[in-house]
Every structure is written in C-alpha cells, then in structure tokens.
Amino acid sequence: MCHVLLYSSISAINPRQRKYFVLLFLRNRVTKFEELLSVGTRFLTGFHQGLEMLRRPPLIKSEMVERIIKANESRRLKAYVEAGCINPHDGVQNLNKLHTCLVGLQDHLRKAKSLLLELEGFMENVASAMQAAETSSSELPEETCKNGLDHQAMVFDKEVELCHLEKSKVTDYAAMMGIIYAMLKQDYTMQEKIVSSLNLKSSAGELESYCLMWSLRPFVNDEIMFQAWKLVT
Fold first, then answer.
1. Which of 43, 44, 61, 97 has the most crowded Cβ, counting Cβ within 10 A?
2. Helices and strands (H, E) in the chain, number of each type
3. DSSP letter, residue 72
4. Mean predicted confidence (pLDDT) in 154-162
5. Are 130 and 167 in contact (CB under 8 A)?
6. By percentage, how much of the chain surpasses pLDDT 90?
7. What is the distance between the alpha carbons of residues 224 and 215, in angstroms, rounded to a whole number?
8. Is the pLDDT of residue 68 over 90?
9. What mean pLDDT is predicted for residues 21-40?
C-alpha cells in the first residue's frame, strides 16, 4: 500500500519538482539510516567493552600487593583474592550487557533492512513514473498535428524540449539515488557480517577491527553524498 501511494505521489508531481521530491525522500531515509548506525555503534562498542571486562585477567600478585592484602585482610577480601580478584556480580552484569548489546545490534539490522527495502521499492516507483512520463510525452496531440499552426507548433516544441530536459535531470538524480542505495546496501551487508561474527570467543583484535570498519564505513563515498545533498539545499 505504501509503494502504491508513493507511486501516485511521484506521478502527480510536476516534472520540474519531481527531482527534488526524489532527493528529499532519499535524504530523509539516509538520515534515518545514519541515526540507526549511531545507535548500532554504541551497542558494538558496548559489546567490545563488556567482553574485555569479562576476560580481564586476574590481579598479578607482587610483593607489594601481598603486603597490602595482608595488611587489610578480611574474610571478604580473602574470598575476592581466592576468586582471582574477580567479582562474580560484575561477571553477571557483563554477561547481561553482552546480551543486551547483541539484541540491540540485531534490532538495528532489522530496522536498517526495512529502510533499504523501502528505498528499493521507492526506486522502482520512480522508474515506473519516469517510464509513464516518457510514454505520455512521446504521444503527440492529434489536434496539434492536424491544424499545423506555426505558433502552436513552436509552443509545443518548446514544451517538449523543456519536458525532455527535466526528465533528463530526473534520470540523473534517479541514477544518483541508485548509487547511494548501492553504497548503503554494501554498508548494511558489512554490518550484518560483523554482527553475525560476534561471540564470546571474538578476540580483542577482531573487535577493534569491527569497531573501526563500522565507524569508517569504507563503502560509503562522502563526496557523492555531499554533492547529492547540495541539490536540495
């Protein structure tokens, strides 16, 4: 139903304004995608920190540490030292944090995928609207052909020329939309692979690489984004 409404909206818009509608819609969805990305970043960082805390090595006893422990020895401190200087309550909290972060990342992927599907449907509707406009503009009015008035013919030629120019611009913007969609799709695929790779055995190096790739977004060209948003500002 949403795609049908979008198609009706695109078809009803004047060709001169259609390109702005296309890019405004795209920018709105890209903004939502980036907002989701920020939330996902917090969950990924939280998973990294939680796993590092869970795997924190026990306290290394030195002569000085031994003296401090002996000087402040209590039943509670003794139990803490025997447990490897790890608080069981902290371990439970970290496990809960890891679970929360994984659930948050999976929810992020679901929402990001929904946005991409919406963009894909919108692109199909833009293509259908452009094809319909192409078909209608190629059909010359019979009255204009029959009466052969020079003035009307000149006016009609100018309108057709202007129409083709506007459609050319819309086609360019639609192509840009396709490029941006492809970048976001690759970005999402990378995020999906990162999330599916997370587990309690993930090394510190792997997690650092995941966080770096997530923030750098290597498949997204910022210059293309900048050029696209300049057209609607």
1. 44
2. 9, 0
3. T
4. 44
5. yes
6. 36
7. 18
8. no
9. 88
Burial 77-98 (b: 16+ CB within 10 A, else e): eeebbeeebeeeeeeeebeebb
Provide the 10 A C-beta neighbour count for residue 211: 16
pLDDT, position 148: 46
Residues 6+ apart with CB under 8 A from 13: 21
Q: Going by C-beta distance under 8 Å and a sequence separation of 6 or more, which residues neighbour residue 221?
A: 183
The confidence score (pLDDT) of residue 12 equals 54
What pTM, to 2 d.p., does this model score?
Answer: 0.72
CB 104 within 8 A of CB 36: no
Three-state secondary structure call for residue 55: coil
Q: Which two tokens stand for residue 82?
A: 């025997």
Spatial CA neighbour of 104 closest among 188, 37, 54: 37
Residue type, 17: Q
Inter-residue long-range contacts of 168-173, CB under 8 Å, 24+ positions, other chains counted: 169/19, 170/15, 170/18, 170/19, 170/22, 170/126, 170/130, 171/130, 173/19, 173/22, 173/23, 173/231
Which two three-digit tokens encode residue 1? Answer: 């139903």
* pLDDT value at residue 40: 96
pLDDT of 140: 45
pLDDT of residue 93: 83
Mean residue pLDDT across the chain: 76
